[in-house]
Amino acid sequence: MSDEPQPQQPAPGKRNRTGWRRIVPTWRMTLGAFLAGALLLTGGFFLGYHLVHIPSANALALKQANVYLYTDGSVIARDGEVNRENVGLGRISQDAQHAVLAAEDRDFYTESAVDPQAMLRAAWNTATGKGKQSGSTITQQYVKNYYLQQEQTVTRKVKEFFIAIKLDREQSKEKILEGYLNTSYFGRNAYGIQAAAQAYYGMDAQDLDAGRAAYLAALVNAPSQYDVIAHPENRPAAESRWNYVLDGMVEQGWLSETKRAGLKFPPPKESTNSTGMSGQRGYLVQIMKDHLIRNKIVSEEELDAGGYRITTTLQKDKQNAFVDAVNDKLVDRLDQKERKVDTYVRAGGAAVEPKTGKVRAMYNGIDYVKQYTPNATRRDYQVGSIFKPFVFAAAVANGSRTQDGLPITPNTVYDGTNKRPVQGWSGGLYDPANEDDRSYGDITVREATDKSVNAVYAQMAVDVGSDKVQQTAVGLGIPSTTPELTPSPSIALGVATASALDMAEAYATLANHGVHSDSTMIEKITKNERETVPLPERKNRRAVSREAADTTTAVLRGVVQNGTATAALGAGRPAAGKTGTAEEDKAAWFAGYTPELATVVAVMGQNPDTAVQEKLYGAMGLSRVNGGGVPAEIWAQFTREALEGEPVSDFDLELQPDAERTAPPTADTGSRPPTTTPGDDTPTTPGPDENAPRNPGPDDSTGRGRTEGGTNEGAGGDTTTGGTDGDTSTGGTTDGTNGDTTGDTDSGGTGSSDGENPGTGGRGGLTGFIPRARGE
Known about the structure:
alpha+beta; 5-stranded mixed sheet; 5-stranded antiparallel sheet; 21 helices; 20 strands; Penicillin-binding protein; transferase; Beta-lactam/transpept-like
């Protein structure tokens, strides 16, 4: 045989592949590759499914705003880095749910968690230049929003795929849709459909109709582009998308063709986003946050995390009425270009419901973004003579007596001589001056309250015991930590620096017949809509006897009817109140109440650059700003508007025995003629700075005259007064050593130039004046 290799013969039935056929895989090769690929994909799927776990929510998804509400449910403000308020599916209208499904995933309820065909189609369209498309189902989009980040990477898409499948097995479709609606971004810093409904239409998600819901659904696709207010040039595109959504709702049977045909494009409002802190909103949010943290209702860390829905006790109509009153009676009268002092003017106030202790309204400043300090709660201005009623209430509550040992009643006669040294005080000389150094001689407590006579009330504080006055004030609602709330005769003249809210709470206790209701600003709090946050138990307690509170009310009614607060008659309701002015006219106050509402108003002076307290001489073109002027006018307008439509009720008073009995006329010892007439706003030159409340100095009273307190005795109303020995100042001059001795600038009658003069003649001075019985 030959040694040459012999050609191999093909096996029977087998042909060699030649030419182009050699590069085409055989069916065996194709089948093998398919099986290998399927095995690889299956293995990869099971490996990925077991390796990829559902993670915790990302930080952004958990962040929410805290929503602050009026009692009627309308929004005050949203506070937080992320404007989101999670709501349950039950608080999202059916139209809103269907609109989003029509826009994003019409087969949501019937399809699986992922749609490979849609993903492939989206990838092809993106690759061929037809625009980027996600191809994601709502479940996948929710996974991206809630669990993952927004980066466009293969790794994120793979995780999204597997998490969506797992999530679809563990959660219901309704729960996934709820999560999606709460995490989607709608533009205008609104995360979630509730925030979006407020941002674009000023309503809650549960109130969205088909037209508005379709517009919000359209926004999800391109939030910034489809905002037709920010980009009016894009309105045609936005309307096209809106129509697409509505057509989809009709196609799915979620909207009738008839209703669809009647819909018109609903343009959003320009400014419905209530998350801003301008105006009163920022003040109210700050005060509420401080209240929650201080009372350990919610911690600062919890508030920062967000998700709280806080219903306050504030009533929207009363809040608006407060702002209107301040604007009308104060802000509109300022001319900051012409008068530098007008740049110092600040205002604050608070209104409390006596029977419940609920804070119904507050005024804090012209704008939180311009003036950050809340004027309703600041404790750095002396309250002046609005503190005096606490002295009288303490006297009645404690059955106090004068230095002569006789009961203190509205008809007790005191010596109202200017700069009269108080008697019975062991802490040293204290001889406060009256307003304008005016002397009144013998004067009843009722009249001394009408005229706000410092000499009388400083002596009364000693007769009662300044420590008891302090205790009574705290019982009524003044915090024990209030600066300068110290037991000394000067406590009567309001050297303490309580806030307007503190004073409103205390006056509300008087209005409530001496029963103090723990004040509150919060009606209800929920967390993430599901959890109700417990609030501290609120209790009522008796602060002073009903007799003490009601007799004080009767006396304060006289201040409104005959005294320094006649401007408060403008409320058109039975009212009681007291005026006050701080040291050097740096603040003017009016505190008043009706049976329904106790309100305190303060006008303060503060340098806008240095924050130093400033005198208000000349503000608004007036010589002085007193409690009976602008503050009482604000109070009257606010009270009238706040209680509009409510029945007018009178005070139901149970008075101290003999409180209705009146004293006969006493002589007017005032030494100065009148300088203004009622309602005269003609500026007058302010006198020297003699309004500083002064704590008693060292004991230098040896050799000084002593004046005993007196009382009105006898059924016939005969008056007996204590004797006067030694030298007592009655003139209008100021002693050089002690000339800075009063914390009050309120007076009535003739000889007053303070703007609180109730009039001249029979009602203005003591001559011919016969006090009327109060409490009738």
